[in-house]
């Protein structure tokens, strides 16, 4: 089981394909995410990952990897601090901040780029899976 | 432009296809979302929409519909209160709660089922698009 201070880290690259699938799933086809030429003309200069796709990747870790199957999602917050670019390597760092009860964890959820700049931060609350 | 008290409502059905695209985009292939037989054996009885797909649909509205293009996402919180089922009609209700500055809005984001039960609630903060 997990305890306060435990952490989980995963390097990810959000690919063009992931962004296009997310755009189809949600209908969010803003060209800033999908069109290189449009993105190049903005202050960002390059295509951005949908912020909520980062949240979806955090959610995937909770449900499938850490704590893993049986985890129930209670809540999530996310602040978008800096742009996350399509194709750039990023690090998701999750760490257990509090356990209000033995079955419930509040997990700090951070996304960094390779320069160790914090791109997004927030907290997830989960109900932990039953021990096997 | 939008003002405190303004609201936006949209009926949505999260389809099987949307859930499968979201699962591919994020890697979250929990059978509770994808496999009828597995879901039938759980306390939910039916397949659940990924919670973060609901957040993605809210994000889509902000970026494309209301306030629309040029909106910059600052943050979002979401609490998952009751299960959202694949294929069921739902209502997304967004309403402007505060405007800390004329360019920034805090928007209450709620998702209801057809029985008017609140399935998910939270708040999004956005920077508003420049007036045309």
Give the gist of this structure.
The structure is a homodimer of 132-residue chains. Chain A has 132 residues and is of the alpha+beta class. The first copy, chain A, is built from four helices and five strands, in the order βααααββββ.
Strand order of the largest sheet of chain A: 1-3-4-5-2
Strand content of chain A: 35-45%
Which bin fits the share of residues in helices of chain A? 25-40%
Please describe the biggest sheet of chain A, giving its number of strands, its sense, and whether it closes into a barrel: 5 strands, antiparallel
**Rg on CA atoms of chain A, Å:** 16 Å
Q: Please give the most extensive interface between any two protein chains, plus how many residues each contributes.
A: A-B, 33 and 33 residues
Mean pLDDT of chain A: 96
Secondary-structure element order of chain A, N to C: EHHHHEEEE
Looking at the structure, what is the overall shape of chain A? elongated
Give me the secondary-structure category of chain A: alpha+beta
For this structure, the quaternary state is homodimer
Low-pLDDT runs of chain A: none
* First and last CA, distance of chain A: 10 Å
Count of helical segments of chain A? 4
Number of strands of chain A: 5
